[in-house]
Amino acid sequence: xxxxxxxxxxxxxxxxxxxxxxxxxxxxxxxxxxxxxxxxxxxxxxxxxxxxxxxxxxxxxxxxxxxxxxxxxxxxxxxxxxxxxxxxxxxxxxxxxxxxxxxxxxxxxxxxxxxxxxxxxxxxxxxxxxxxxxxxxxxxxxxxxxxxxxxxxxxxxxxxxxxxxxxxxxxxxxxxxxxxxxxxxxxxxxxxxxxxxxxxxxxxxxxxxxxxxxxxxxxxxxxxxxxxxxxxxxxxxxxxxxxxxxxxxxxxxxxxxxxxxxxxxxxxxxxxxxxxxxxxxxxxxxxxxxxxxxxxxxxxxxxxxxxxxxxxxxxxxxxxxxxxxxxxxxxxxxxxxxxxxxxxxxxxxxxxxxxxxxxxxxxxxxxxxxxxxxxxxxxxxxxxxxxxxxxxxxx
Length: 395
Hints:
Elements: E1 4-5, H1 13-23, H2 32-45, E2 49-53, H3 56-66, E3 74-77, H4 84-91, E4 95-98, H5 110-118, E5 125-129, H6 140-149, E6 153-157, E7 165-167, E8 173-175, E9 184-188, E10 201-205, H7 208-218, E11 222-223, H8 233-236, E12 248-249, H9 260-270, H10 273-291, E13 297-300, E14 312-316, H11 319-328, E15 331-332, H12 344-347, H13 357-365, E16 366-369, H14 377-392
Parallel strand pairs: 1-15, 3-4, 3-5, 5-6, 6-9
Antiparallel strand pairs: 2-10, 7-8, 9-10, 11-12, 13-14, 14-16
């Protein structure tokens, strides 16, 4: 069997054509494909605004900047996530406060967040960054209600869940990142994600003021708008109006732009995103049925409505043994994630083993199985058979 990774991009002839056409056009960056991708993505998610960026980490960084995170501000997030979800707070000098996960959902446990908030005076914390881990959506309606009680903002890290959703209290479907509950949401277009553009990210929001601020921050803090300039027309070099070349840097921003050919690839991939999620859910159902009655399974992602299945996670006995066995079979499963609070960088702030028992127990047993739309039935059966073979020799 050829190598089977945990995730893999799918580049079609249509994708290649879209990129080549853009490479042959007048724009490689700051051209029309950026706006087209943003408009299509906002429509897909259901938000008012979308801002394309260089990657998901850049998106997180700009979100914390736009919300005014500064030195000493405390922000709550989950330890089971890629480090960027926490690091964005540190980029602004803020303090990351980890709160434990729900062992059933693997998501940030809202009850533990509530306990954390109620144990401190109002104003101690500034915001919450819930992560739609593996593609499972947080109930952001509940998080919004809690955040409003404590005057907190919310950044939804939806990198794993474009196309994911949850049901609100009125049984209405709420798409991940639609802006109805979170102030800002972010997505990633890394090759193993649902939509690939090589690298790339997106912020979605329904807040026009945040949107305008993000547009500035994305491009060096520069404004090119006659109605927004603060310097005089004379200083700008004009007479009755500002000259056409004029622009102002009004804030300290960054070059976090996406290129046009990356946007073209993302736009092409977006057109078949729903089919990709449909296939992911089919694969998830097969895994669930294969392992639901196995004694060696401690837990698994299950079949969950609205789950976008960036990952399919199982919790097992002898995780290291299984990991090595699968690699011997040319199956490259992965571990998501080493708890952030146990990273040496965060341990310097006092975080230690034992602080997040649910996250730490999860980490001891979790393994992510191959999950991507072009995984064939034969390949999935081989993965399942290889796992069963390993445990048949042990139990």
